[in-house]
Amino acid sequence: MSAFTRRFRLPDDTPRLVQWLVGWYLVHLLCAPFIATSEGAVAFSLFFSILAIRRGHLRPSWHILYFPLGLYALASTLSAIAAPRSIHVGADMITWLKFLLFPLALMIFREIRGAKEAALGVMLFFGIGTSIWGLWQYFGLGQRDLEHRITGPAVHVMTFSGLILPVALVFAVLWLYDKRNLWLSFGLGVTSLALLLTFTRSVWIGWLAAITLLIVLRRPKLLAWLAPAFVWFLILMPMPLFTRLMSTFDTRQSSNLDRIRMAEAGVEIIRDYPLLGVGPANIKEVYPLYRRPDAPRFRIPHLHNNVIQIWAERGVVALAAYLIFLALFLRECARAWRGEQRKFAEIGVAVCTALTIAGLFEFNFGDTEVLFLMLDVFALVIAFTEKASPAVVNEPAPALVPRPATGP
Fold it and tell me: CA torsion angle for 84, 86, 92, 95 (degrees, to 10)?
């Protein structure tokens, strides 16, 4: 037994090639904020997965979520070909490569016994470490205002908060099932506090929507306590956080007005380019032609809304694929809701809800770091729940033990 298989509780006879595959995938999870390292680890994982498949250690398998991801990538490629100005090389092939992470992760979790548990542990460890990094910036370096917001190891506060949001909800759901677990209690505390101190209103709204939905689905009677608890939270909230929260309702506040003007411009772009959009990465160049005179910014990186951005940039087919992807994933969670792994179905619903709601105010589906973690969590949820799901209960169990090598 190698130190790697012993540390991550993989089967003793796991081939060395498969160990490399799992190792690089775990590196990707651990280095999620470092996009170059994360993408490089995914590339190495794909390389070793191809070798493992060729030698018979693993076998690829189908899942219905591959369909909307493929449709989105295809729509992106067609949009890039039709656009008069194509920025992405190879007709936006980068989207295809990014989406390969989902089938890669699902194959690892399905085929290698212990891999999904190892991935969950690394993901939780990443959440704690990243949150502590951000808390050190807040309390140690004094990054406590809107001009100096905490970013953790990420390059931007929106990316940092987008990474912490799903992990905080994973901790929250797991803690509800094991409240005496000090590790989960500590993780829930530091990730939630870091999320709060990012001053990122979109993730606050996403987190609150996810928690409210879980309460409705689990114990609707607790809703009577939600409003008083929220009022007390507002009363005890430090003034900088309270001011930031109240600014959400000020439509003349600069960032709020900017989002309103971006949405209006996005609607106009959609009217002119409804089918294929203006092409991937072209919003930045097209927006000045549609912006209102009082819009705070002349150039923007994106439209700060998943629905509007995807439709304006890549067309109506890409938008339909995005919505189908979310709907099919929620269907998978619903099928496993009364199964043995209900807690992971709840994690799926919470994370999907939070990222979708937050995505109404930020283009988090286009943030590679956040997209990768979203695909990782979705694959993890499916791997934990599908065995107990009515959709697969009568099907042959997936092969979880690596097969012996059949070649050199």
Answer: -100
* Separate counts of helices (H) and strands (E) for the chain: 18, 0
Strand partners of residue 148: 145
Q: Is 308 helix (H, G, I), strand (E, B) or coil?
A: helix
**Which amino acid does the sequence have at 183?**
W
Distance CA 316, CA 373 (A): 25
Query: What does the pLDDT average to over 190-218?
Result: 93
| C-alpha to C-alpha distance for 403 and 408, rounded to whole angstroms | 14
The residue to which tokens 């194959």 are assigned = 107
- Whether the per-residue pLDDT at 398 is higher than 60: the answer is no
Region label for 206, one of left (φ > 0), alpha (ψ between -120 and 50) or beta (otherwise): alpha
What pLDDT, on a 0 to 100 scale, did the predictor assign at position 405?
40
Q: Check the CA dihedral 350-151-363-43 and report its sign.
A: negative
Q: Residue 148: phi, psi to the nearest 5?
A: -135, 65
Rounded Cα distance, 286 and 225, in Å: 47
> What number of residues does the chain have?
408
d(C-alpha 283, C-alpha 286), whole Å? 5
Q: What pTM did the predictor assign?
A: 0.90
Q: 3-class DSSP state for residue 88?
A: coil
- The answer on pLDDT for 407 being more than 60 is no
Residue 34 near residue 121 (C-beta atoms within 8 A): no
SS3 category, 145: strand
**Which pLDDT does position 387 carry in this prediction?**
66
Percent residues over pLDDT 70 in the chain: 89
Query: The tokens of 173 are what?
Result: 């759901």
Burial class (CB in 10 A: 0-12, 13-18, 19+), 379: buried
**Which tokens is 390 given?**
């009515």
- How far, in whole angstroms, is CA 273 from its chain's centroid? 28
Question: What is the C-alpha to C-alpha distance for residues 294 and 371, in angstroms, rounded to an integer?
Answer: 32
CA dist., res. 346 & res. 70, Å (int):
26
CA 279 to chain centre: 23
Residue pair 370/18 in contact by the 8 Å Cβ criterion:
no
Phi, psi at residue 145, to the nearest 5°?
-135, 175
Domain range list for the chain = 3-218+315-385
Dig out the tokens for 87 from the structure.
Answer: 């920025």
* Weakest-pLDDT range from 12-16, 37-41, 156-160, 224-228: 224-228
Q: Is 407 exposed, middle or buried (0-12, 13-18, 19+ CB in 10 A)?
A: exposed
Q: What is the distance between the alpha carbons of residues 39 and 372, in angstroms, rounded to a whole number?
A: 9
